[in-house]
Amino acid sequence: MCGIIGVISSDQVVRRILKSLKLLEYRGYDSAGVTTIKGNNIKVRKKLGKLANLAKSMEEEPLEGNIGLGHTRWATHGTPKIENTHPIVTKNSAVVHNGIIENYRELKENLIRAGYKFHGDTDTEIIPNIIDFFQNNGATLIEAVLLCANKLKGAFAIGLLSKSNPDLIIAIKQGSPLIIGLDEEKKSCYLSSDASSISEFCCEVTYLEDGQIGILESNQYKIIDFDGQEVAIKKEKVSNEKCSDLSGFSSFMLKEIYEQPKIIKDIIAKYDEQANKIDFSKINHIKIIACGTSMYAGHIAKLWLEEKYDINTSVEIASEFSTKKNPIINKGELFFFISQSGETADTLASLKLVKKHGGYTIGIINNANSTIAKLVDQLILIEAGIEIAVAATKTFLAQLATFAFISGIEVENLKQSVKLIQQVLKKDKEIYKIVKDGLAKAQKVIFIGRAISYPIALEGALKMKELAYIPAEGIAAGELKHGSIALIDEKTSVIVIAPEDSSFSKIVSNINEIKARSGKTILIACRKVLDQLRHLYDYAIEVPEYISEVTIPFIYTPVLQFIAHHTALLRGNDVDKPRNLAKSVTVE
């Protein structure tokens, strides 16, 4: 969600800004812009839509300067239009900003009373105006920045250029990530909201902490806190992992679906010889907190943890948990926080709340350098590699594989899961044909499952909503008769997850209920079940029989990923960058 790039150098910077912004595209955005200072003039270029639109305008009319900021914006305050696109420029300042300023209305009203005019609808526009206000009243740039930073409430990452100090980039960090890197050889300094976007230029970076301000020059930088006191610089090595190559696939999502067997193999190799490092002997309750796909992984983990350790486990939506004023945290309670990015704002807010009340926290994260990874008491990396497509695929199964080890599940089950996934991947073209014939034009889709298949149904429905833009709902099959069955008619497609497990006879009853109401049924099951229920489905997707119930999510999830991908593709949607969505949701 939104991306910030800043470059100050002895050379022209626009090309490097655009290259780095390109690496941030996966985070999601609806507009993009670049600003530079040349001489005593602030130049800005903004475009709606794809970054390619901005790059094309730069080719037609180059923007010059040795210092600049770039931004990809995902609208939170104000609609996607040029006036709201960053950088936001005033007479003396240019600002890019991630996050939300919670008290912007009050600050904006004060500025309007002081004679300042606003041209857009964003909360960001108050920032350069506040800086200008203090400088117009005699403050130096750094003094103005400090006064501004202490007035803002919320979570924010800010990059600032000022005509008063045209050889500096100012970075302000509170709640949202900001990273500084230095290329000493080329005398260039970089600012970014994501280290991967500048790893080509910098082998070491500094992660700003909350309440810190970075002051960047071309060959050095320093850090001060919100009181103006200089802070020691901590440098960390940054991975230069590259994953922008489609490797022959038509989309990153498809590529990442096919990467899943290898990722689970890698997790097995890493954890196979390791003892479980979590001591559950003194734990009397486990709470899993997450959002979206990560939360559904948490629901499956709950079943495994309860079965293995006989410990009551609950799953909470992070955005709801974080609203609690006084959460009940008991002695002997363990908290898992699951986040693909490690920057999910709702999950981060919940983590801070738990830590404030003394809870012990473990992070299940894919980014070792993320904010959540740095704050938890214990970090467990899923190490799935960078996931480019907005819709999570490989990170979901990597989270499950990691929890399988945490839950003490025999490694042989995971080894068998790798083979089963590989068999499912061979069904790609077959699933495409079924989707083309039976789902591409669907008006509403329901996913049903029981027991461990219910969270899989929830994840399948989420993928369909995210990618195909079709109203979809995941329902515990036993709950159909308690109201949701009213939705079933001849225009309803129902995708049934039907492993031959302990709840199989009941899911058969649910399928009969659906057929009795003219619902169109797509049954996902093994050959034995498909032969047995031939009279009950309109379409069928055959999957291998499960080895143990642990392997069920690894068999059925890739099928649902294919279904969502192919449905979106057939409807003409961008499967890697679905509308209105961001890879890393850094606002609450």
UniProtKB/TrEMBL annotation:
GO terms for biological process: amino sugar biosynthetic process; fructose 6-phosphate metabolic process; protein N-linked glycosylation; UDP-N-acetylglucosamine metabolic process. Keywords: Aminotransferase, Glutamine amidotransferase, Repeat, Transferase. Pfam families: GATase_6 (PF13522), SIS (PF01380). PANTHER family: GLUCOSAMINE--FRUCTOSE-6-PHOSPHATE AMINOTRANSFERASE, ISOMERIZING, GLUTAMINE--FRUCTOSE-6-PHOSPHATE TRANSAMINASE (ISOMERIZING). SUPFAM superfamilies: N-terminal nucleophile aminohydrolases (Ntn hydrolases), SIS domain. The lineage of its organism: Eukaryota, Metazoa, Ecdysozoa, Arthropoda, Chelicerata. It comes from Hyalomma marginatum. Residues 2-219 form the Glutamine amidotransferase type-2 domain. Pathway: Nucleotide-sugar biosynthesis; UDP-N-acetyl-alpha-D-glucosamine biosynthesis; alpha-D-glucosamine 6-phosphate from D-fructose 6-phosphate: step 1/1. This is Glutamine--fructose-6-phosphate aminotransferase [isomerizing]. Its EC number is 2.6.1.16. It catalyses: D-fructose 6-phosphate + L-glutamine = D-glucosamine 6-phosphate + L-glutamate.
